[in-house]
């Protein structure tokens, strides 16, 4: 409600700017972005009628942009909004147009161009929604090749490539791509990043299911495959999901399998020397990510069943809430380097409240791990 309230205020300001400067391109583009602000739990959907108006605002910006200075971001954003309303052919046309216009020497302008990895990845997802798997695989490979290994665009390209290869029944290549993504994001936190949404609706569950399956999280994989079939029963990829579901159901259950819901993880002392954020706010953020901590721990317990103890995690938080550097384990009595590595990677994506003080904040969080 707060997010939508702020968005409505921003919309009013843009509308006022349009009235006062009707030939100005910028407020139309900004207004289109505001109109597509979504519920974080359902980022693939606009609020009612907002996507349609966003498309109209971007087309008006294109009409006003006689110099073509903003042609690339307008095309890229039209691709995003059109994909949200299921107009995949039109979205693909816009992504292709944006790719043709990607040229760092082309202008100055008011808005930054979209990078090639983003456009390749977005257009690959659109091609997959259209059932054009061969072309989707090629675009994901282009996104992979043009991004920096380990960054979010590279990781999303690996996820998309893995899913596309699986749907093309290239099983081993699919698992290799998914494993590369898990190596940098073991808890799949990037799939719920605020800047990421999936089309068609429900497709996110396919990514999650495949990730859990490759990671060996049997119960979570079963739940995610069922969720995909419940949320997208008419998907052209439902048959492939049912194959996965049947194979998992018939796979032998071993004593080493550990359900993350049944492991004990606690958040202990939080040391914040400078006190720039309330301790309760810091604790609340860590608590929101306890499922990720449990997932890391459950995977360790499969092969290291005696792992117990405490772990102290250092976080250096920027004023805007993200981390200045990767999280770092200062001390661990758990006896498992794998657990510390998994938690360091997971914590790197955590976001804390914005600080009123424009300075970094060093925080040490104590986490306890007490078995099943």
Biggest β-sheet description = 4 strands, antiparallel
Number of DSSP-assigned strands:
4
Output the strand order for the largest sheet. Answer: 1-4-2-3
Strand-residue proportion: 5-15%
What sort of overall outline do the alpha carbons produce when their principal axes are compared?
globular
Roughly how many Å apart are the termini?
Answer: 38 Å
Oligomer: single chain
Number of helices: 15
Q: What is the string of helix and strand elements?
A: HHHHHHHHHHHHEHHEEHE
Low-confidence stretches: none
Average per-residue pLDDT, rounded, comes to: 93
Structural class: alpha+beta
Radius of gyration: 22 Å
Helix content: 40-55%
What does this structure look like?
By secondary structure, the chain is α+β, with helices and mostly antiparallel strands. Helix content is about 55%, strand content about 10%. It is built from 15 helices and 4 strands. Helix 4 (about 70-85) runs parallel beside helix 6, helix 7 (about 135-145) runs antiparallel to helix 8 (about 150-165) and helix 11 (about 220-230) runs antiparallel to helix 12.
């Amino acid at each position: 409600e707060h997010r939508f309230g702020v968005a409505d205020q921003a919309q009013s300001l843009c509308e006022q700017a349009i009235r006062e400067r009707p030939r100005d391109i910028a407020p139309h583009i900004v207004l289109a972005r505001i109109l597509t602000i979504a519920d974080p739990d359902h980022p693939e959907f606009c609020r009612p009628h907002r996507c349609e108006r966003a498309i109209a605002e971007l087309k008006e910006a294109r009409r006003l942009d006689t110099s073509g200075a903003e042609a690339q971001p307008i095309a890229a954003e039209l691709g995003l909004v059109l994909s949200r309303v299921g107009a995949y052919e039109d979205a693909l046309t816009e992504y292709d147009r944006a790719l043709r216009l990607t040229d760092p020497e082309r202008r100055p302008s008011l808005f930054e161009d979209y990078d090639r990895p983003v456009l390749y990845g977005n257009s690959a997802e659109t091609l997959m929604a259209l059932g054009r798997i061969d072309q989707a695989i090629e675009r994901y490979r282009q996104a992979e090749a043009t991004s920096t290994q380990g960054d979010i665009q590279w990781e999303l390209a690996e996820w998309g490539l893995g899913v596309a290869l699986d749907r093309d029944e290239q099983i081993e290549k699919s698992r290799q791509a998914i494993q590369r993504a898990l190596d940098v994001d073991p808890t799949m936190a990037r799939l719920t990043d605020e800047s990421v949404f999936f089309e068609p609706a429900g497709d996110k569950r396919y990514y999650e299911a495949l990730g859990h399956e490759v990671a060996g999280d049997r119960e979570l994989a079963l739940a995610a495959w069922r969720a995909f079939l419940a949320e997208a029963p008419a998907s052209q990829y439902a048959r492939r999901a049912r194959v996965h579901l049947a194979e998992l159901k018939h796979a032998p259950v071993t004593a080493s399998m550990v359900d993350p819901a049944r492991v004990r993880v606690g958040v202990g002392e939080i040391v914040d020397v400078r006190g720039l954020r309330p301790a309760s706010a810091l604790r609340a953020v860590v608590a929101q990510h306890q499922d990720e901590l449990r997932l890391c721990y459950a995977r360790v317990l499969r092969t290291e069943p005696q792992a117990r103890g405490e772990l102290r995690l250092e976080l250096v938080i920027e004023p805007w809430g993200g981390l200045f550097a990767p999280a770092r384990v200062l001390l661990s009595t758990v006896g498992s380097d794998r657990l510390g590595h998994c938690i360091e990677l997971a914590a790197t994506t955590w976001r804390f409240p914005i600080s009123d003080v424009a300075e970094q904040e060093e925080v040490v969080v104590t986490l306890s791990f007490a078995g099943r």
